[in-house]
Amino acid sequence: MLYTDKTIADNIYYVGVNDRQKHLFENYLPLPNGVSYNSYLIVDEKVALVDTVDVAFADVFFKQIDAILGDRPIDYLIVDHMEPDHAGSIGLLRTRYPNVQIVGNKKTFDYLKGYFCIDSNLLEVAEGDALSLGKTNLQFYFAPMVHWPEVMVTYDPDRQILFSADAFGTFGALNGSFRDDELNLEPFWDDMRRYYACIVGKFGNPVQTALKKLSGLPIKIICSTHGPVWQSQIAKVVGLYDQWSKYETEPGVVIAYGSMYGNTKQMAEAVAQGVVDGGIHRVVVHDVSKSDPSYILADIFKYKGLIIGSPTYMMGLYPLIDSLLHKIEERCIKNHVYSCFGSFTWAGAACKKLTDFAGTMNWPLVGTPVENKQGACTDVLQRCYELGKQMSAEILK
Ligand code: FEO
Q: What are 334-347's pLDDT values in tens digits?
């Protein structure tokens, strides 16, 4: 049968949904490939549901649960994460199953009361606590700030299954299967890095803490709240999270520029040519007026070198560059080498602000930033070209 075939392991079912309608995740991050909200149903002597789904999909969500349970009630709702893309259907769930006991931690229950006015029939768990459903035993481990303070993960030690909340999640709806060995995974890897960079990227240290805590647990299956259920790619996805949370990068350069009339763009093109001639061939050039910032951030998380260019605008930075710098700074991105260039017509400000950004981020400044007055001339473009070569030399050192 359609719904009940979604078996992850004996008595554990996938009951998540695909969202192919939403354009913007959290109302600002593009979803060209959609996204899934994953929920998991464990049917034993007691029935437990791990997280719910966005309330917009409650109808199909409950149909899937009904197809498996029939009239049988749900005994426990385990809330690993309270963000509404997962917690959104809790209110309706409580209405359908008034006796369901909600399992969470102290912070979970604070948010639960705030969002849903629910403060009864709760089961509070502490770090390492266990819950038996019959044959199935579950343990709870806290993973604060991966991605909210209340986040915890649920672990089945007998079958070595980790319900990981947002950790190891990715954008991208699930096309025909939730199993990683039945999906074409190619579109997911870039979307996974973009998801990480935008959603979890600020919290590298908490992710490292969580990874160290979980490193002692043998894991055969990871059930995240977004994207594939990982079984054949466990080592890869854990390795990627380890790499990204340590801000480890590959040799390559991101050039992000703003340009109103093309002069700063010409500088960017010369810088890019210099990078390639210097020996680094992995170069991504982003016009910030065209590229969504989430893609720029995802590339910055991938590559070691970053060069930013901006015209002077209102005696400051071009607005979209200003916004990009803010996004980089709030993610506390480490381990990069950096340089910049800028332009102006009557009084320069952008290049100095971009140069100061190296200090803000505690990144080494490579070469001498290039500042251009009015039209980009050959001399300026030659210096941009040299700057690109210096960036390559720095990365190849
Ligand atoms: Fe997918 Fe932080 O919620």
A: 999 999 999 999 99
- Spacing, Cα 322 to ligand 1 middle (Å): 27
CATH 3.40.50.360 fits 250-395, yes or no: yes
Three-state secondary structure readout of the chain: CCCCCCEEECCEEECCEEECCCCEECCCEECCCCEEECCEEEECCCEEEECCCCHHHHHHHHHHHHHHHCCCCCCEEECCCCCHHHHCCHHHHHHHCCCCEEEECHHHHHHHHHHHCCCCCEEECCCCCEEECCCCEEEEEECCCCCCCCCEEEEECCCCEEEEECCCCCCCCCCCCCECCCCCCHHHHHHHHHHHHHHHHHHHHHHHHHHHHHCCCCCCEEEECCCCEECCCHHHHHHHHHHHHCCCCEEEEEEEECCCCCHHHHHHHHHHHHHHHCCCCCEEEEECCCCCHHHHHHHHHHEEEEEEEEEEECCEECHHHHHHHHHHHHCCCCCCEEEEEEEECCCCCHHHHHHHHHHHHCCCECCCCEEEECCCCHHHHHHHHHHHHHHHHHHHC
How far, in Å, from the CA of 280 to the mean position of ligand 1?
36
pLDDT attached to residue 208: 96
Report the pocket of ligand 1 as residue ranges, CB < 6 Å: 81, 83, 85-86, 147-148, 166, 225-226
Domain residue spans in the chain? 7-245, 250-395
Residues 74-125 pLDDT 10s: 999 999 999 999 999 999 999 999 999 999 999 999 999 999 999 999 999 9
What was the pLDDT predicted at 5?
72
Cα(87) to ligand 1 centroid in Å equals: 9
- Structurally, what CATH architecture does the domain formed by 7-245 represent? 4-Layer Sandwich (3.60)
